[in-house]
Amino acid sequence: MTERLSLGTATLAYDPRLLDIGIVHLGVGAFHRAHMADYTDAVLRKGDLRWGIMGASLRSPETRDALAPQDWLYTLAESDETGERCRLIGALRGVLVAPEDCQALIEAMCLPSVKIVSLTVTEKGYCHDPATGELNESHPDIVHDLANPSAPRSAPGFLVEALRARKARGLPPFTVLCCDNLPANGRTVAKVVTRLAHLRDPALGRHVAENVAFPATMVDRIVPATTDADRARIAAATGLSDSWPVVTEAYNNWVVEDHFPQGRPAWDATFVSDIAPFELMKLRLLNGAHSTMAYLGYLAGHETIADCMRDEALSHLAAHLMNEEVTPTLAVPPGADIAAYKLALLRRFRNPGLRHRTWQIAMDGSQKLPQRLLGTTRDRLKAGQRIDALALGVAAWMRYVTGIDEQGNAIDVRDPLRDTLRARADAAGPDASRLAPALLSLEQVFGRDLPQDPVFINAVTQALDSLFRIGSRRTYEAFRSAHP
Hints:
By secondary structure, the protein is α/β, with parallel strands linked by helices. It contains 20 helices and 13 strands.
């Protein structure tokens, strides 16, 4: 029987009990623990103990309950074509569960030692309109937070209340660091938080606008959900029982706008003044290809992205999307080798050690499409260029959110617009000429322009019709024949 992971069994280069809390992180899931916490752990190992992380869950106690008995330690398992390597991470010093005690989280954010509040709450966690980037003022959590400002539910609500409390106590504001896949994520979160603060109190809104930093980031690491098989394999490799290890790839990249008025850790990240070209490159190449493969691959019966890449016709589609449709829309960042990056992406997608499920990537598509596929689509339409692969990706999402797969089985669609999507799909039936316009009329996803563009409408409708008539696999095989 393996011994349980704890401070008594762990060997670290620093004593986690000596850490100050310099960062509060909202949304302490697997991605944060594999990315930002990993970067921070490297800083702590070098002796700068000011940057311990207090995690927070805005929904579930699951992470807290798993990690508390092991003193907040966990195993990070990194894999590439040479194998898997495990090491311990001690940067996390606690996990607060907001629904149980929202005041405890606000007080943590008000600690004088806290210089940064970071977030990975997924695209839907910002309560915004993905098509415009504006705060969705009718979102139920925002309505609640305006009525109950001292007991918020949403990430923006917690940020605003903590910033208000720090101001009242004479403390400087923390830096807000978004690590989610939002377009222009720093500006988007600044817009959302500033608007919510203004709705609470115009003076508070001015304070946020004038004094709070929202640096932009580009995060790049593939992190599948942890499975019981992962736990068993890691326990066998380490001799320690870890309730919630994290599995990820060896590749890790982080580009950050260097704007931290209260200071920051000496992360081994790339610090730049303009993050936009890095962000666009990653969102459109990695995330755009990921989502396209996820929807088509799931419908074709592929469980993971690695399975998709073993399907030559589907991997051909992913490469065509990146090379022919995405790359011409990009302004390559200074010093970046875009050809090498694309080759690395294809190699990362093939990594058999990462069981990144198509179902997991397919979640929350209504929030992801605007930045992953629709921005590229707009740029190509404006330039009069073809959108064959992009339209197929959008159509595959439409087919997926009907909630019925190609064998007639139910799909567990996870999306904040799930009920709306399913109602429209049920009303339209398996008819592309009815379903495409029904879903394209969702302004919060497609805006006002795309539903009026005949080239876009026709391309998506034709692709969706093919998915209904001959299925996903035969559709992307036909795509390969048409685009050798």
